[in-house]
């Protein structure tokens, strides 16, 4: 498959007009002798040029009065065009640069009419479940509420439990120490004898 390119006018005298890019050197301008002729006062007689180099088009401004822009940036030298870029000529003319895929006329093609048997089996859409049809009866009551989703388990109770156990161990340790501590340890604090 070979890639070809085209310009599509988005704004200007003929919006929607397509200019296929067929050739190695193409000029854009107001004169009818240009390969891409756009009859508008904002366009110079020979406004800009497209040259095919290495399978890509290179855009050059030919000293136009109102300038050539790509995506809002003025072209001052050469610019290699990429599909999707917008070429502006002056203030009112904009052209979209597009890539068009052209198929090889000698290539083998599968018919779009009927896919091969194996492919057809894989391509069968799965039937979608259909809602129950109305049978003419009124339901006895509102539908039962759906079971609530299980809540995510919180770690907060576990953390509180660990903190309580550590505090109790600290209190017990201090109590044991105070009970078995020698009297000489407390004498400076209480004064006198134990």
Keywords:
six-stranded antiparallel β-sheet; 3 helices; about 20% helix; five-stranded mixed β-sheet; single chain; about 190 residues
Give the secondary structure arrangement, pairings included.
Elements: E1 2-11, E2 18-21, E3 25-29, E4 36-37, E5 48-53, E6 56-61, E7 68-70, E8 73-74, E9 78-80, E10 86-89, E11 93-102, H1 117-123, H2 156-180, H3 183-190
Parallel strand pairs: 3-4
Antiparallel strand pairs: 1-2, 1-11, 3-5, 5-6, 6-9, 7-8, 7-10, 10-11
Characterise this structure.
There is one protein chain. It contains three helices and eleven strands. The protein has 194 residues and is of the alpha+beta class. Strands 2-1-11-10-7-8 form a six-stranded antiparallel beta sheet, with no helix packed on it. A five-stranded mixed beta sheet has the order 4-3-5-6-9, with no helix packed on it. The longest helix is centred in the last third of the chain and has 25 residues, at 156-180. Residues 110-117 have low confidence and may be disordered.
The helix-and-strand class reads alpha+beta
Tell me roughly what share of residues is in helical segments: 10-25%
Strand content: 25-35%
Label the overall shape. Answer: elongated
User: N-to-C terminal Cα separation, in Å?
Assistant: 105 Å
| Succession of helices and strands | EEEEEEEEEEEHHH
Instruction: Write out the strand line-up for the largest beta sheet, numbering strands in chain order.
Output: 2-1-11-10-7-8
Q: The biggest beta sheet, please?
A: 6 strands, antiparallel
Number of strands: 11
Low-confidence stretches: 110-117
User: Average pLDDT value?
Assistant: 79
> Whole-number radius of gyration?
41 Å
Count of DSSP H/I helices: 3
């Amino acid at each position: 498959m070979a890639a070809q390119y085209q310009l599509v006018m988005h704004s200007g005298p003929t919006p929607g007009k397509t200019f296929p890019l067929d050739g190695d050197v193409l000029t854009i301008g107001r004169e009818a002798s240009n390969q891409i002729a756009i009859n508008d006062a904002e366009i110079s007689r020979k406004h800009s040029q497209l040259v095919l180099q290495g399978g890509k088009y290179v855009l050059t401004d030919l000293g136009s009065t109102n300038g050539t822009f790509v995506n809002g940036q003025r072209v001052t030298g050469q610019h290699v065009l990429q599909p999707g870029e917008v070429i502006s000529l002056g203030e009112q003319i904009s052209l979209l640069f597009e890539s068009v895929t052209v198929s090889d006329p000698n290539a083998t093609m599968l018919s779009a009419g009927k896919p091969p048997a194996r492919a057809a089996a894989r391509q069968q859409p799965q039937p979608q479940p259909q809602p129950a049809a109305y049978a003419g009866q009124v339901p006895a009551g509102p539908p039962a509420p759906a079971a609530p989703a299980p809540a995510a388990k919180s770690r907060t109770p576990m953390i509180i439990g660990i903190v309580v156990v550590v505090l109790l161990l600290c209190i017990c340790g201090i109590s044991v120490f105070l009970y078995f501590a020698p009297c000489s340890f407390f004498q400076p604090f209480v004064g006198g004898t134990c």
